[in-house]
Amino acid sequence: xxxxxxxxxxxxxxxxxxxxxxxxxANVAAKITSFLENSKSNYDYVIASRDWHTPADSNDGHFAAxxxxxxxxxxxxxxxxxxxxxxxxxxNLDQRLIDIHIRKGQNANGYSIFDGIDENGETYPExxxxxxxxxxxxxGIATDYCVRASALDSVAQNLTTRxxxxxxxxxxxxxxxxxxxxxVDAGVTVIPTA
Length: 194
Ligand code: VGL
Fold this sequence. Notes:
This protein is of the alpha/beta class. The protein has 4 helices and 7 strands.
């Protein structure tokens, strides 16, 4: 029985000035750092994910085709390409507070952390099984996409799952609202603060 904080995709491209900026992203990055400074001891592991898309590839249709507009639901502007500054953690997130780094979205949508792999090549599902993680709190970006997908997969795997909404930022208010409803219906505990 171990408890983890999942820090989802707090990356430059999802914050102000990035390719797929979510309003409030940079502030959320700073608030997650403060939260961890105060609360890291409540967690056995802090696991952070990064979208890490393949360059010069549609990533299974995730990137809008050249010359066509993204719809911001299923297709997106090019973002978080592996080894670019847009894919780096936002500087407001203190990386020293992260124990395990997950990358996801190589040649794929990669919305969920469950599609990710750690620096040793272990898949996220294998990792949480080995570490006996049974409880996760989830923060990060975007509430309505990667946080949502990671939370829904967590409850589906019978993890006790909470999302702390004051430490998240979303793509659009309407889809954040429907994602919260969907997460609650699926059994996620959605709370404003921990
Ligand atoms: C995300 C949209 C597209 C996310 C990733 O990290 O939530 N959102 N790709």
